[in-house]
Amino acid sequence: MSLAEQLDTVTDAAAGTVDRHATTETFESTNPASGAVVGVFPVHDADAVRETVERARAAAQRWAELGFDGRRERLAAYRGYLARRMHELADLVHRENGKPHADAILEITLAIDHLAWAGAHARKTLGPRRVRAGMLAANHAAYLEYQPLGVVGVIGPWNYPVFTPMGSIAYALAAGNAVVFKPSEHTPAVGAWLAAAWRAAVPDVADALQVVTGYGETGAALCRAGVGKLAFTGSAPTGRKVMAACAETLTPVLMELGGKDAMIVDDDADVAAAADAAVWGAMSNAGQTCIGIERVYVSSPVYDRFVAEVTERVQGLRPGSDDEAAYGPMTMASQADVVRRHLDDATSSGGRAVLGGTLDGGFVAPTVLLDVPESSAAVREETFGPTLTITRVRDAEEALERTNATSYGLAGAVFSRSRARAMDLARRMRSGMTSVNSVLTFASVPALPFGGVGESGFGRIHGEDGLKEFTRAKAITRQRYALPVNLMSFTRPPAAADALARVMGVVHGRHR
Ligand code: NAD
């Protein structure tokens, strides 16, 4: 299929949800490297969003009735479709988000792996099971199951336009929900492509995954459209607005927000490996990674060696939009302004850029900052650019203290050769996820939950927790036989309460 045909396909796919409802306003998505138009998409208004959610509600019933096996089969067809068209989708991600083709392939691979895990583990995690009824209800059978919520609204960012929303979409679908997805206004073509792929791969329940496109107002309309839950991934300020809109209808929310993740390098660490991981964690995807490494705290004895190893590696990196470039441009022009402000603040408050510190249009040079005070915006706020602050600390304990001194708490990394020490530091790191002797690895383990604490949000995608996040727990008891004395009846004899108190005394009274 030619490029022009592909673009027509994605644009038509987004319009597919709206041509049944008149919306005239449109917006363009552009290639951040060249400014070329990638596609033109409808701005879905509140009525169009509501209609889409209603169509999804009808599909949700059919989707839920398919059961775990029927859904697993169809989720497999979807991932098969994505895998067969991997390069086509990667090309679209490259053009619309700016990241290198190889990084787009990696991102899509992760999303496919999560789809496979969610489909394969939904029954075991959510299916009906019997639980012990306990002493007081010994004559009853007790059942637990996790039921779908109906329609889940997903609002996504632009930095990982496939992997990030799929963390909610795959798990919500596997749990038996239909999904209405509002991609970022910076990556609507990728969102529309994902929905068009669903329609093609799962034609019998095509409306179980639909896309609405537009700006923040479209997202706000989705919050108010009667969805069973709203899964939001984006910045903390927008997260607050989403929560406020959802509060109007008591719609529950999942918040996957930003971070200011740190790496701790202990004095016994493999310094070269730590440097290599820090550079990837900070610079890949132009630093536009929620779980990217933005700060490194290095034990004094290995600080100089670590800085030298990082510097050597960063010198070899070049931003660009060609296949050999290490990373692409900032996807969003305004993000370059944030990076510039953080660089200015870092250098004017005593820090120095040993490498980089410059911007060329949307391309930010890979930047290594030393001696930046902890009060600087470059240390306190999410930068979301290819920058890294490296700070010398007394030891790993001080590193942990500084790591945790942030309002964010998404993820982080620890480098140490001592397993016990590294695990202890990882446990005490105030974050939802930590990698030991690597960066970002937890995101590629589908069985592990993903989510933050504090300003990084709450709730979890991925793993069993991620499946349960998109369900409601349902409890059922069934009386198997009646007891001669029913304590929850006005017919109970007066002595029954005393007898119960005596039993409790025997069973629990001995514990002090
Ligand atoms: P953003 O908050 O600007 O936008 C996110 C989405 O919210 C977009 O689709 C946008 O259109 C929509 N939106 C904007 N205003 C809205 C409103 N009032 N109501 C409803 N929806 C609204 O974030 P972004 O710039 O697209 O993404 C970058 C941020 O996302 C960073 O902070 C990054 O750390 C975070 N992020 C977090 C995770 C995670 O899993 N924790 C993953 C990726 C990105």
From TrEMBL:
InterPro entries assigned: Ald_DH/histidinol_DH, Ald_DH_C, Ald_DH_CS_GLU, Ald_DH_N, Aldehyde_DH_dom, Aldehyde_DH_NAD(P)
Keyword annotations for this protein, in alphabetical order, are:
Oxidoreductase
What does the similarity note say? Belongs to the aldehyde dehydrogenase family.
Q: Where are the transmembrane segments?
A: none
Organism of origin:
Geodermatophilus nigrescens
Keyword Oxidoreductase attributed:
yes
Q: What is this protein called?
A: Aldehyde dehydrogenase
Q: Which branch of life, at top level?
A: Bacteria
Domain Aldehyde dehydrogenase intervals: 23-476
> Where are the active-site residues found?
E256, C290
